[in-house]
């Protein structure tokens, strides 16, 4: 009997529904070819739903999604809604509720996709950022004060622990101030370091590069270094290398293919992964996954692009490649290989006009999705 996976889907805002439709098409074709099925569970959350109902993300939907095998997300964000309102209410809610502690961001070079920094002959870009996704400055701990005195409570929950406390700060003489607290814990660092090491082993590599800044921020990132070194020592034959984040960015723009697995604290991973997206051909080719031990979420990282929504100019390849990550997460590796191979074949075989607008062609989003799906079918 074939296996059925329940997949939650939030198409979201802007071009989200357009690119998600093409990703679903590709995944359904792959599922049919390799003998399993996808039971799509659709959810309406995003700007239109919020403006119509005032509801961002009800608890009942979170409970339902917890029973799914994965989540495909299109894009979140709309100029009619205050910046951050939907992103915090949907994206961060999902990441923290389901403890998606890995943000996975592959950066690959593809045929016919121009790179801003050309690679040496015979070389290709195949780097992956493993970003810690639940700690560091992104825990939302902080505040602002106009009168020189600031205090706030700390109350954060992650799967391995609860963090509680009080912080009080003041200036003499009084002046406006702001504070944002960054936290790293042994359980938090240990699990992301282990994920990075195991990924490097699966990729057949002999090193993991930790992106750090312990020379300037010794308590926070020195701790991250120490805990990562303790984990990496458990993997014989795997070397842990360290690069300060500024030096790492410098090396990337000179030799984008210089690294394999990059392990990053949350803040640095956010920055470095977008740099690599630019170096590998643009956001329209950038897939992403938010992975944990429960529900994991897969999404293109290009945002909702409301300026081109409805024009047919959206590039669906990042969404389709995010679907490839989703299939790999489910353990359907043959199907995932077929999806990734179909994207490569489409780019290799199409005439220039047949490529997405972002890549210099004139292919509407639907046609690009059809081209990929036909190659998955075989």
Automatic annotation (TrEMBL):
Signal peptide: none annotated. The lineage of its organism: Bacteria, Thermotogati, Synergistota, Synergistia, Synergistales. It comes from the Bacteria. It comes from Aminomonas paucivorans DSM 12260. Residues 367-378 have a biased composition (Basic and acidic residues). InterPro entries: ICDH/IPMDH, IsoCit/isopropylmalate_DH_CS, IsoPropMal-DH-like_dom. Residues 353-378 are annotated as: Disordered. This is 3-isopropylmalate dehydrogenase. One of its GO terms (molecular function) is magnesium ion binding.
């Amino acid at each position: 009997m074939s296996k059925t996976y329940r997949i939650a889907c939030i198409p979201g805002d802007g071009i989200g529904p357009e690119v998600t439709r093409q990703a679903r098409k590709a995944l359904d074709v792959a599922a049919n070819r390799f003998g399993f099925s996808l039971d799509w569970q659709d959810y309406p959350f995003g700007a239109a739903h919020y403006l119509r109902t005032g509801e961002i993300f009800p608890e009942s939907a979170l409970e339902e999604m917890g029973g799914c095998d994965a989540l495909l997300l299109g894009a979140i964000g709309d100029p009619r809604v205050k910046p951050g309102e939907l992103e915090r209410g949907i994206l961060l809610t999902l990441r923290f509720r389901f403890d998606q502690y890995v943000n996975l961001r592959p950066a690959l070079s593809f045929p016919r996709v121009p790179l801003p920094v050309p690679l040496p002959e015979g070389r290709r870009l195949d780097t992956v950022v493993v970003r810690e996704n639940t700690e560091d400055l992104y825990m939302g701990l902080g505040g602002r004060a106009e009168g020189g005195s600031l205090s706030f409570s700390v109350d954060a929950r992650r799967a391995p622990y609860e963090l509680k406390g009080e912080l009080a700060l003041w200036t003499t003489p009084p002046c406006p101030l702001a504070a944002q607290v960054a936290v790293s814990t042994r359980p938090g660092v240990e699990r992301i370091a282990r994920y990075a090491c195991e990924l490097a082993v699966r990729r057949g590599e002999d090193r993991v590069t930790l992106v750090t800044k312990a020379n300037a921020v010794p308590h926070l990132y020195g701790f991250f270094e120490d805990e990562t070194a303790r984990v990496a020592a458990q993997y014989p034959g795997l070397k842990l290398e360290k690069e300060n984040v500024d030096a790492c960015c410098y090396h990337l723009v000179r030799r984008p293919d210089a690294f394999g697995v990059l392990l990053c604290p949350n803040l640095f991973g956010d920055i470095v992964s977008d740099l690599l997206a630019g170096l590998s051909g643009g956001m329209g080719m950038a897939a992403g996954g938010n992975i944990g031990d429960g529900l994991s979420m897969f999404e293109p990282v290009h945002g909702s692009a409301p300026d081109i929504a409805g024009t047919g100019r959206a590039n669906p390849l990042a969404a389709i490649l995010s679907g490839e990550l989703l299939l790999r997460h489910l353990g359907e590796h043959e199907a995932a290989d077929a999806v990734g191979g179909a994207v490569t074949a489409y780019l290799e075989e199409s005439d220039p006009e047949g490529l997405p607008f972002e890549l210099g062609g004139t292919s509407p989003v639907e046609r690009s999705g059809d081209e990929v799906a036909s190659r998955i079918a075989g």
